[in-house]
Amino acid sequence: MSAIIDDKVVAGAKSANIVKEDPIVALTERVNALYLFRDHYFENHSIEEAIKKNQDVEKEMKDTINKFDECKGYEIDGSRAKYYYLKGKALNVTERFIPQAEELLTKAVKLEPNLVEAWNELGECYWKNDDIQTAKNCFVGALRHGKNKVSLRNLSMVLRQETICSDEQRIENIQKGVESAKEAVSLDATDGVSWAVLGNAYLSSFFTIAQNPAVLRLCMSAYAQAEKDVIAKSSPDLFHNKAVASRYQEEYSLALESFDRAMQLDPTWERPRNKKDELLQYLKDVQNAINNKGRVKPKKLYQMIRALDVKHLGPYKGGSFTSGQETIKLDLVSLKDLSVGVNPEKVIFGKVICWIEDCVPFTFCLVDEEKICIAVTVYNLAKGRGVAVGDSVAIPEPFVIHQKFSYLNNDFDFKSIRVETPVIMVVNGRKLGREKEVSAKLYTFKKHD
């Protein structure tokens, strides 16, 4: 009997503790559980359930908001700022903009200007509502109250999206964005979301400031770090942006796989599907153009090859050319003699037999006097400045890539020459001028931008 009485006493004590429990503590735990549900969704659900994720998160959010209604009245009990912040954060868990979240978070920062977490959430609200400048002000304001990785990485992203007046300001924003992302990573090297943002910052830098392959490698390395984190690797944004980077590295197989992963993680998102279809069509067009030598009739092809004249090598005709203070020797070789990778001290020469429509990079097919056909991808070519069918083109020290892989029911096996800048090419005996060159514009993507 005494044991039963003791159990009742203990149970009664527990009930009393629940009644007296600080509601802010309880609501904090509830909101943390909501974000844990969202961020770790695929640890408890199969990838086939991805289509339900947004709906499930919305349901959890509504259940969480109901808990706030149960605690109604506590917002006036000395913790109003925290209460408004927590409720605003709960509403902010979804990808869509919710005006009530903005209202609550605005109240929170007015009541407690040092509440960094509330500033970050408010910045997210403005961001979702396409108010980039106000979002930036929130993240900058949060950093005044305390350095933190969330403000830094979000600032990195909004700097790239801010409306700017000049190319100089855009470059400055990109540079600041890289530094902010690097600082976020330095505060927590295990945070995959910060690594993903750093990867995006490097990718933007590559296309805006300097076409340095080392920067693109830093980008891919950052994405690889991001994938080690369970939260970051659940983001379709990460794989979409990784696919974009892979495409520009001409790692097409990896790009297709990454677009597929983005689609799996969010089956409702059309952008990765559209980009994957565009890439697949591009690869088919290149493969068909090479296999069929641009569908040029044999007689016409023969005439084009006969018209090849070494005088069209221009500055590369003499067996060497000058780069800065250095004189580089060049041997004219056949396309079949090229190796995968860089071919130092070599120059190739051929006729343009076709080009692929509406694509970046500008892509054309070149055939040499031995009727060997190869694709050429030219980056940073100004719009409307491409070569024409029948042009004679010389390329020094060509960088060759061999694409050989299968995807779905498609087999790809072709070689291409990657040209980072058009100014190294000689067309019809003349080297292309700087007016032919323009920086590519590439934008990473965040779904609620």
TrEMBL record:
Record gene name: LOC108622064
TPR repeat ranges, renumbered to this chain: 236-269
InterPro entries registered for this protein in UniProt: TPR-like_helical_dom_sf, TPR_rpt, TTC5_OB, TTC5_OB_sf
Family that this chain belongs to: Belongs to the APC3/CDC27 family.
Record's protein name: Cell division cycle protein 27 homolog
Native species: Ceratina calcarata
Superkingdom, natural source: Eukaryota
SMART domains listed in its UniProt record: TPR
Upper taxonomic lineage: Eukaryota, Metazoa, Ecdysozoa, Arthropoda, Hexapoda
Domain Tetratricopeptide repeat protein 5 OB fold: 330-439
Keywords, in A-Z order: TPR repeat
